[in-house]
Design brief:
Number of strands: 5
Oligomer: single chain
Distance between the termini: 47 Å
Number of helices: 7
Largest sheet: 5 strands, mixed
Shape: globular
Radius of gyration: 17 Å
Order of helices and strands: HEEHEHHEEHHH
Structural class: alpha/beta
CATH architecture: 2-Layer Sandwich
CATH class: Alpha Beta
Length: about 200
C-alpha cells in the first residue's frame, strides 16, 4: 500500500461505514519544560491537498505554516489548550487528554468517529480509534498534529516577547542547552512547569 493510500485508509474505511464527520486528534507540547500543551481536532471537508501533509515533526517550519493555512481552509478545526499551572496540578498526561477533550468540544460539530494519535484516549462519548504513530497513518491526525504544533509555536513566540531572556521563540520550551543556561541564570519563569523534575 502506498504512503498516500495508507494515510487515507482509516478515513475511507469509516466513510464506507457511513461515518461522515471523522475527527483526527493530536497534541503538541507534552515534553517541553515550559508553556501549555495544545491539542487539535480536525474534520476534513476535502482530502486533497497541494501542500505536503505529514507528521508535523517531519515538516520544516515554512512547510508546516503553509499546510496550516490550507488545512484551515479545508477543515473544521477545534483547539484545546491546557496551561502550565493545570499541568502542574493534574500531571502532563491528564492535561494532554483534557486538551484533546477541549479540542473536540471546540469543533462545534459532533464527530461521528474520533481517530486519536497514540495508545491512550480521552474519555469522550464518541466512537473512537487510537492509532500508534497516527500522524503517519491518518491524514486527519496528521492535519491535527500540524494545527496543534503551529498553534503552540505561535503561543511560545508570544511568550518570547514577554520573557525574552529565555529564548522561547527558538526552542519553544524544550530542554535545549540554551534553555537550561537561561533557567540557571534567571530561574524559572511564570510559564515554566514547576512539577517537572528538571525544573525542580
Amino acid at each position: 500500500m502506498s504512503a498516500k493510500r495508507l494515510m487515507l485508509y482509516h478515513e475511507r474505511k469509516l466513510t464506507r461505514q457511513g461515518k461522515r464527520q471523522i475527527a483526527g486528534i493530536d497534541e503538541a507540547g507534552r515534553g517541553p519544560l515550559a508553556g501549555p500543551v495544545v491539542a487539535a481536532a480536525v474534520i476534513l471537508r476535502d482530502l486533497r491537498f497541494k501542500n505536503r501533509i505529514a507528521d508535523s515533526k517531519a515538516l520544516t517550519r515554512l512547510a508546516r505554516e503553509r499546510a496550516y493555512e490550507e488545512i484551515l481552509r479545508k477543515a473544521d478545526v477545534g483547539i484545546g489548550i491546557v496551561g502550565e499551572k493545570d499541568i502542574d496540578r493534574i500531571n502532563i498526561l491528564r492535561a494532554s487528554l483534557h486538551a484533546m477533550e477541549l479540542a473536540v468540544y471546540d469543533l462545534g460539530i459532533r464527530p461521528d468517529h474520533l481517530l486519536i494519535d497514540g495508545n491512550i484516549h480521552p474519555e469522550l462519548p464518541h466512537p473512537k480509534t487510537a492509532l500508534i504513530d497516527g500522524e503517519s497513518r491518518s491524514i486527519s491526525i496528521a492535519c491535527a498534529s500540524i494545527i496543534a504544533k503551529v498553534t503552540r509555536d505561535f503561543i511560545m513566540t508570544y511568550y518570547d516577547a514577554l520573557y525574552p531572556q529565555y529564548g522561547f521563540a527558538r526552542h519553544k520550551g524544550y530542554g535545549t542547552r540554551l534553555h537550561f543556561l537561561a533557567i540557571r541564570r534567571f530561574g524559572p519563569s511564570p510559564i515554566h512547569r514547576r512539577s517537572f523534575t528538571l525544573i525542580k
